[in-house]
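call fold target=Large ribosomal subunit protein uL23
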Amino acid sequence: MNIDIHDIICYPIITERSTELRERMNKVLFIVNPYANKIQIKRAVEELLKVKVEKVNVTNVEGKKKKLGKFEGVKPGKKKAIVTLKKGEKLEIFEGA
């Protein structure tokens, strides 16, 4: 499946845990297109954010079960990418915020 490079990265995950990973281990977390693979994610990050990527880890997060009265449903799942940047690389979008 051929995905446009702008449709691969949906949005960054900004939590306390992701901030600590970024500062200590130079890793950045993103929610990505569920059909994208590691190679496509690496190319998208390098081209769109202008940084060098060392490696990409990917995990599929299942949707949570939710109840409303007697009705039960499932929220949609997501695909999460943990991108390790090469030494000396930093993302400018997170600096100074």
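return ok
Residues 5-85 form a domain with the Alpha-Beta Plaits fold (CATH 3.30.70.330). DSSP finds two helices and six strands in the chain.
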